[in-house]
Known about the structure:
The chain is an alpha+beta fold. It has helices at 10-14, 35-44, 53-60, 84-95, 102-109, 119-128, 139-147, 195-203, 224-236, 240-253, 258-270, 274-287, 292-304, 308-321, 326-337, and strands at 68-70, 132-136, 152-157, 166-175, 180-185, 188-194, 209-213. Helix 12 (274-287) runs antiparallel to helix 13 (292-304) and helix 13 (292-304) packs parallel to helix 15.
Amino acid sequence: MLLDQVPIPRRARARRGPRPARARPARGVRLCRQAGRLASLVLALGLAACAATQTERLLEQPGGLPPRVAIAEVPFFPQERYYCGPAALAMVLAWSGLPVTAEDLVSQVYTPGREGTLRSDILGGTRRNGRLAVEVRRLDALLAELAAGHPVLVFQNLGLDLLPQWHFAVAIGYDLPAGTITLHSGTEARRRVALATFERTWRRGDFWALAVLAPDRLPATANRRDVVAGAAGLERAGRLVEAETAYATLLGRWPESHVALMGLGNTRYAAGNASGAEAAYRKAIELRPDAAAAWNNLAYALKALGRRSEAISAAQQAVALGGAQTMRYRESLREIEGSSP
Length: 341
């Protein structure tokens, strides 16, 4: 039995499926069309008094961030009715090179019964369209992505914790001296919002944002585990060509990622490229000779290449190494031994 699930590290696995919004999730992102008016309501209710600690630290110590960034080539689709989810996703997908509009995505990410879109819908829609989706959860990381020329899809609560008004927008630039961030939001393109105000609304959205990139590009700030999770998401969505590209791109930055090599091998095997899968599994074994799963999967690649005796030896090695999947390795060995020479 081929182990076809990439073993995502624990932290990435915990973040694989974005949680529904904590308050009134059934309402999705209702009232997206009122984004500007709701932002004013937030201020009127005195929420500006809440601390925006990330903003304060960032303005005091911006590090290597350029003072101003504006990404000019991000298309704008007005977020009308309850379609802020499809519109925001269309903006970043179109920027990444896909010929899509908000209307094209309504059936993919909009739930009429909820009158809105959930974060999991956005994540799934990104992957089904063959794009790498990696979460961004800190303000400095968000601005660093913008500085790298990557727009970022953001999730906000423009209301209160007890009376949420969920909203998706796209960050396309910032101005540190002015203390502002620029958003494609609602029906307004290039809307400038105070960074402190944005941080508060983003915090109430659980600091959830998404870098959406072609699979041959990597986020400027993401760590290896998050990118592996993004590539594995493409694999689970059946986008094997894009998943292979994402794993290969990841390995260009982190060549000793055993998990990425396993994912690359699995993706190639699923696509019918047994020789490419063999090469990936052998590299994984070079890094970790005691990785039973790599030996098990190598056995299947060798079997597909017609090298039965080598396949049996690899499967026997997986059984000898054992571990939590020992029973599955034994099943693999029996299957390969029972196959025709």
